[in-house]
Please model this.
Amino acid sequence: MKQVVAALIWQDGTVLVCQRTRHQTMPLKWEFPGGKIEEGEQPRDAMRRELEEELGINAVVGDEVARFRHQYPNGGAVELRFYDVRQYSGELENRIFKDVRWAKPAELPSYDFLEADRKLVQDLAAGKLAP
Model:
């Protein structure tokens, strides 16, 4: 099972969402920034590395706020760990995505998210996780 970390980066009551490019797997789907935990890497270290690679920021990784397992129809399985990120240094820049946006939690269900992220999207939209 692939181990993945993703960040809920908050700013003024909004959360950062990112759209995959046409050339990535599951093209044009929306997701939260993050990626695979490398062999021997701690989850928070993976989170910091991924955010630096994807967005050019040095994040202060907060608490793990959710963990889900998801089985894709093609047989692939992931375990996703979501972390709160409320502080970072550096200028946020889009290094790998088609688009990045700040969205209010209630707006999230209108985005075409990856299947594995949808439970968290529902929880955020329902106010179960506070901005």
In short: The beta strands are 2-11, 14-19, 30-31, 34-36, 58-71, 77-89, 99-103. The helical segments are 43-55, 118-125. The two ends are 30 Å apart (CA to CA).
